[in-house]
Design brief:
The complex is a heterotrimer of chains A (464), B (383) and C (96).
Chain A: E1 5-11, H1 15-26, E2 31-34, H2 48-54, H3 58-62, H4 64-67, H5 69-78, E3 82-84, E4 87-92, E5 97-102, E6 105-116, E7 120-122, E8 135-137, H6 138-148, E9 150-152, E10 156-161, H7 163-174, E11 179-184, H8 191-197, H9 205-220, E12 225-226, E13 230-235, E14 242-247, E15 250-255, E16 258-263, E17 265-267, H10 270-274, E18 279-282, E19 287-290, E20 303-305, H11 315-332, H12 338-365, E21 381-383, E22 388-389, H13 390-398, H14 404-411, H15 424-435, E23 454-455, H16 456-460
Parallel strand pairs in A: 1-2, 1-6, 2-3, 6-20, 8-16, 10-11, 10-16, 11-12
Antiparallel strand pairs in A: 4-5, 5-6, 7-17, 13-14, 14-15, 18-19, 21-22
Chain B: E1 4-8, H1 12-23, E2 27-32, H2 40-43, E3 47-48, H3 58-68, H4 71-75, H5 77-82, E4 91-95, H6 98-113, E5 119-122, H7 124-130, E6 140-144, E7 148-149, H8 152-165, E8 169-172, E9 176-182, E10 185-190, E11 193-197, E12 199-202, H9 208-213, E13 222-224, E14 227-231, E15 241-244, E16 250-253, E17 259-262, E18 268-270, E19 275-277, H10 280-293, E20 301-307, E21 310-312, E22 319-322, E23 329-333, H11 343-356
Parallel strand pairs in B: 1-2, 1-12, 2-8, 4-15, 12-23
Antiparallel strand pairs in B: 3-7, 4-6, 5-6, 9-10, 10-11, 13-21, 14-17, 14-20, 15-16, 16-17, 18-19, 22-23
Helix pairs in contact in B: 1-8, 1-11, 3-11
Chain C: E1 2-4, E2 11-16, E3 19-24, H1 29-35, E4 42-43, E5 50-51, E6 64-67, E7 70-74, E8 85-87
Parallel strand pairs in C: 2-8
Antiparallel strand pairs in C: 2-3, 4-5, 6-7, 6-8
Classes of the chains: A alpha/beta (464), B alpha+beta (383), C mainly beta (96).
């Protein structure tokens, strides 16, 4: 029987959620963690318990950062916080009312405080042909590796930017996956570039060296990497068959049955948007995120956001933010005095400062490729759910629909089940380009409950 | 020199009035505080209905229906297509009990007595022919066969584009702050400066009463936020729009297969943020109604829900006509949740009234002064 | 398109379009189908274009399947179970 009330409801079972729950429970806060996934870990530590228990060999492939999740998960399990896996949250509102679907039934949970810890998603990469079967996010392939020990058995083409594509390629290479090519939509950078461009790079040396080490490892394994790639297109009839791209002024084509795309990671903002938390455009990360203070508090008194959902910081930063949000929740619930709270916060504050320093360097060195943010061909699909093309969006703007919500209402872009998760950013880019605006000006799609589709039968059966 | 008109409010009634005033040779400016079609006009359930209207609205509704069914002539073919209007599919009020059926029969008799025959009773067999997807427990219905549905936001934009093509200017994101009489005309004070006009038309929708208050005219109203939800696509199973009699329901399947479910379930209005939110616990009632009436929907999925901002007048019919307080100020607002279908006609009638001094259809029942004449109430059997 | 690094500890039998399929216990339905070489899950609603999973974490809604009689279920958020009946909607038939 699902609980119907609690002091702190944490939505999300990744590093922020797990760390927050453990800290909150330790302080005597009645805490429930609602997790869409069947087991804790979120995405970055996906399936960590299973991997550790029955596929420990895979830890070598996945790397030491992934293994760090095991301790977090164990601490969470031991903490006494209630855990409700397989729970899809479709509303989280300022008055503390949370709507949840679990095991084919919907129920309401009333929380005194809500911590949104739903993390991040890969920035969608809407290149021509991106909707063909056989095209996935690189993170999707990583999820299959972590959750199921599945790896591609056909030559893979990886396209995009960011340090993560090197990591994913290395993980696959270690697992014996044939990598046809890594197509990097950015110039090749080296340590000297980094040092020249950013004074902080020295302090982040270890991390940068690691990224460069992944690249060396790839070279050592004979993986082809092509830098300075532009205009990538996935070709095929009915499924992915080839990738064509431009490099050094020439057009190339390679066969590809599985194409993995990655252009950075952005916060998942749907729940915060649905709760009407104020959002801010983060120019450094080229994304929207909820406005939060040092403790993760949003513009709504009852709601906080921690982890990558508040701004991309990575797993260690997420855990620190989770613990800080838990401290704040405990203070607001009268379970912790502010002076002790500040003392308890200091270690995580130091960690956050380190992570922020690193992140600034990474963001400057690995910005998303502007060209991959939105397609430009008239027939290219922006909205996957409703199959809305660039031409349809441009027509709407021409007809006077001059912001994201007007374009949505006119074209249906963003009205499908994903509610704009996959198309909102790209639609804004298309609109902004037409109107010669900065990309934040068209705004974000308005989001209301249900933030995830709910079966009518579950709504009809909701106990109220 | 052209007579100047300022229309306050860029919803369908404002846009329609502006269009018709421009056709009569006026220089028209529409001032809209958010964006055209942002509110009720753009987010309603899209029903285009004559069915079960207040007797005072019936002549207007029938004339409006003529225009909807000839949208090509009214807007031109490309803008008509933009509205995604489907006509001649009917709107059916469904009776689940004999008592409800008796109520529908009374309504049909009343309308027939007034000389209107567009509403027909359906017995159980006839209802099943018209809407086979309805649960077999339904005993009958009342249908208006010319009725249908359209896409409200796209219709709002089509009206705007038509008006713009005919010379109407629009200022969006501009808020009217005050109305000051300037000679025989007006100075309209806004967040973007002042604009002079000879005539002002108040099509302020849910904020119409606020505009009226700017000249000291007190018009009763209740703010409310009708909410809707929409499903994922379902294989085509329904042609007419179905509305509930004993239960709140407005139910239609759109061209793309999604099902829009409304009917008066209330959301929460937020007049400060100028938006509205649906309420999950209240949508439960709607979900149960659909579950009972349409078995095919029992495996359907709800994808989105939303709510709009409206103002309801005590007798549930709008205020249309001259201000009771000052000259050269006209009202057309307060449609109480059912103004969409009337939009092609009211603008035309109001423009006739303003420019020629008389309207071809009776607008007396909608006079602003009626609230000072005695108590008013909603008309039974209407929706 | 995908292979397993290890033999699964436990398997269950599900039915995909009425054909039995042995899958690893604990896999999501989407992962299980991909592992079985099924790359096309459904057809997009307007043009009928073939679609398969893109994000695997519940955001893209391209892994929608009918599962145990309920249409419109996200395969990536549903864990396989013994006897589960999975149907890939044919074109124009995504729903009830």
């Amino acid at each position: 029987m699902a609980r119907t009330s609690c002091e702190l409801a944490i939505i999300g079972g990744g590093p922020a959620g797990m760390a927050a729950a453990a800290r909150a429970a330790a302080l005597g806060v009645d805490t429930i963690v609602l997790d869409e996934q069947p087991a804790p870990g979120g995405q970055i530590y996906r399936a960590i318990e299973t991997v550790q228990a029955s596929r420990a060999d895979d830890l070598r492939i996945l790397g030491e950062e992934y293994a760090e999740g095991a301790a977090l998960a164990a601490a969470f399990r031991a903490s006494g916080a209630a855990y409700e896996p397989g729970s899809v949250v479709w509303q989280a509102l300022e008055d503390g009312r949370i709507g949840v679907s679990c095991n084919g039934a919907a129920h309401m949970l009333s929380a005194q405080r809500i911590l949104i810890a739903t993390g991040a998603m890969e920035r969608p990469v809407p290149i021509p042909g991106w909707t063909l079967p056989g095209v996935m996010g690189a993170g999707a392939a990583q999820t299959l590796l972590k959750a199921c020990g599945l790896v591609p058995d056909v030559p893979v083409v990886i396209i995009g930017t960011g340090p993560l594509i090197y990591l994913i390629a290395v993980q696959f290479a270690r697992a014996g996956v044939p990598i046809a090519s890594v197509l990097v939509a950015a110039p090749e950078i080296g340590m000297t570039d980094a040092l020249r461009v950013l004074p902080g790079a020295l302090r982040s040396g270890r991390t940068l060296l690691k990224g460069l080490a992944w690249r060396s490892e790839l070279r050592g394994m004979g993986v082809q990497m092509v830098h300075g790639v532009s205009q990538p297109v996935v070709e095929g009839s009915g499924r992915a068959e080839a990738v064509s791209y431009t490099q050094n002024g020439m057009r190339h084509r390679i066969a590809a049955r599985l194409v993995l795309l990655h252009n950075g990671v952005i916060p998942s903002t749907q729940l915060a948007l649905g709760a009407r938390c104020k959002q801010a455009w983060d120019a450094g990360q080229h994304c929207w995120r909820p406005q939060t203070n040092d403790w993760g508090a949003t513009s709504h008194a009852r709601i906080a956001v921690a982890g990558d959902g508040a701004g991309i910081l990575g797993a260690r930063g997420a855990a620190s933010l989770g613990r800080l949000a838990a401290l704040d929740a405990a203070v607001r619930l009268g379970k912790l005095d502010p002076a002790r709270c500040d003392r308890m916060a200091s270690e995580d504050r130091s960690e956050l400062a380190r992570q922020h320093g690193l992140r600034v360097v990474l963001d400057r060195l690995f910005p998303p490729a502007a060209e991959l943010l939105a397609p430009t061909g008239a027939g290219d699909i922006v909205c996957r759910c409703e199959e809305i093309t660039v031409a349809e969006l441009q027509d709407a703007v021409t007809q006077g629909c001059t912001d994201a919500n007007r374009v949505k209402a006119f074209t249906r872009c963003g009205m499908g089940p994903c509610q704009g998760r996959m198309c909102g950013a790209a639609a804004a880019e298309v609109i902004a380009r037409m109107l010669h605006q900065s990309v934040d000006q068209p705004g974000q799609f308005r989001v209301r409950l249900p933030v995830r589709p709910v079966p009518l039968a579950e709504l009809a059966g909701l106990q109220i | 020199m052209k007579t100047r008109a300022i229309v306050i409010g860029g919803g369908l009634h404002g846009t329609s009035t502006a269009l018709h005033l421009a056709r009569k040779g006026l220089d028209v400016l529409v001032i809209e505080k958010n964006s055209v079609g942002r509110h009720a006009s753009g987010v309603n359930a899209g029903g285009v209905r004559q069915l079960r209207r207040h007797p005072a609205e019936v002549p207007l509704s029938v004339a409006a229906m003529d225009r909807w069914l000839n949208l090509d002539a009214f807007l031109g073919p490309d803008l008509a297509a933009m509205c995604e209007f489907t006509g001649h599919v009917g709107q059916v009020a469904v009776a689940e009990t004999e008592a409800e059926m008796a109520g529908l029969a009374a309504r049909e008799a009343e309308l027939r007595g007034l000389g209107w025959t567009h509403e027909e009773l359906l017995d159980q067999a006839a209802l099943r022919r018209v809407a086979p997807a309805l649960s077999p427990h339904c005993v009958g219905g009342l249908i208006s066969r010319r009725d249908g549905h359209a896409n409200p936001y796209r219709t709002s934009q089509a009206f705007r584009l038509k008006a713009q093509r005919e010379g109407v200017r629009f200022r969006e994101g501009t808020r009217v702050l005050g109305l000051v009489q300037a000679g025989a005309g007006w100075r309209v004070e806004t967040s973007d400066g002042a604009f002079d006009s000879d005539v002002v038309v108040n099509c302020g929708g849910a904020w119409g009463w606020q505009v009226a208050a700017m000249v000291g005219e007190v018009l009763p109203h209740v703010d409310f936020a009708p909410s809707m939800m929409v499903s994922a696509r379902v294989q085509h199973f329904l042609d007419p729009v179905v509305v509930g009699t004993g239960r709140k329901l407005s139910f239609k399947q759109t061209e793309n297969g999604t099902v829009v479910i409304g009917g008066g379930i209330l959301g929460i209005p937020d007049l400060v943020a100028e938006t509205a939110d649906p309420v999950a616990e209240r949508l439960v009632e709607s979900a149960r109604t659909v579950h009972d009436l349409f078995p095919i929907m029992r495996t359907a999925t709800i994808v989105r829900a939303w709510a709009g901002l409206e103002a309801r007048m005590p007798d549930e019919i709008p205020v249309i006509g001259p201000s009771t307080m000052v000259a050269n100020l006209w009202h057309a607002f307060g449609y109480s949740g059912h103004g969409f279908q009337l939009s092609p006609i009211v603008g035309s009638l109001l423009a006739d009234l303003i420019v020629d001094g008389k309207s071809p259809l009776p607008l007396e029942p909608f006079r602003a002064g009626r609230f000072n004449e005695g108590p008013v109430a909603a008309h039974p059997g209407t929706a | 398109m995908f292979r397993r690094l290890h033999e699964p500890e436990t398997t269950v039998t599900v039915f995909v379009d009425d054909a039995p399929l042995r899958v690893a216990a604990g896999d999501s339905v989407a992962a299980a189908l991909l592992a079985a070489g099924i790359a096309v899950f459904r057809a997009a609603p307007r043009q009928g274009s073939p679609r398969g999973p893109y994000c695997m974490i519940g955001n893209c809604y391209d892994c929608l399947l009918e599962i145990d009689g309920m249409p419109y279920r996200q395969g990536c958020l549903t864990t396989v179970a013994e006897g589960m009946r999975i149907r890939r909607p044919t074109e124009h038939e995504e729903h009830a």
